[in-house]
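Case study: Epoxyqueuosine reductase.
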Amino acid sequence: MNLKTKYTNLIKTEAKRLGFLSCGISKAQFLEEEAPRLEKWLNKNMNGQMQYMENHFDKRLDPTKLVEGSKSVVSLLLNYYPSELQEDKTAPKISKYAYGSDYHFIIKDKLKSLLNFIQEEIGEVDGRAFVDSAPVLDKAWAAKSGLGWIGKHSNLITQQIGSFYFIAELIIDLDLEYDSPTTDHCGTCTACIDACPTQAITEPYVVDGSKCISYFTIELKENIPTEFKGQFDDWMFGCDVCQDVCPWNRFSKPHSEPLFNPHPELLSMTKKDWEEITEDTFKKVFQKSAVKRTKFSGLKRNINFLKD
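Here is what the predicted structure looks like once written out:
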């Protein structure tokens, strides 16, 4: 066995031990196919007020500009599909990824452990860990690394387990064996396009971020445009509709990460509880959650927007 194969196997075995669903590896190089796509998307203002999407255009497409001398992008998936959902079917809804503790911290810790392991086992390896907070095109790298294909709703899908997982990566200056992309299995299905409450999927594989419920409820800091009144399908933080209707998510299995389990009160809160939520309850229930990003005032705005 050559060293490349040995190191690749070591990294993938350790990733599994750390709880990652899967691990795929790509050569760190300029993303040629994605460049025109990203440019077109930005030119159409589909990023809405997410100005940060316009920053670091070159770094977003070239990992060697993020990590000097980088040779490999190690992509990782971490399942977050919950075993239980919110009980009150009429209550405002929260995206499943935000049920538990903020994933940024949990995944960052796992990535640091993986990088430490690589440095201990292999030696002088330099690199950085990324969890969707840096200019890295996570889904493009995961697809390039054979972890799934990008579906018509622009999320990564895997035949075995659907799409309810986080994507993260290590960009390192180590030569490894590279995986090949998998094939697209969306076929003629348009379930996600048909189901999107705000018609944000403007054509297959293109999502207008400025029309997405997740954008309105998390990213948008001002009032939600009134023309979308009645179209939110009761989502107060994020939206899972395009994933919920995807046939491949029949294969989703509950995660085994205790830190992703929701606060005991979260799932049992009724519609009335949400409408009367106080700042104290907000702080208690979302103490470590990604929901804190929208702040109490933002969540109240979203809940009020859902009212008749």
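For the exam, be able to explain this: Residues 146 and 181 are 4 Å apart (CA to CA).
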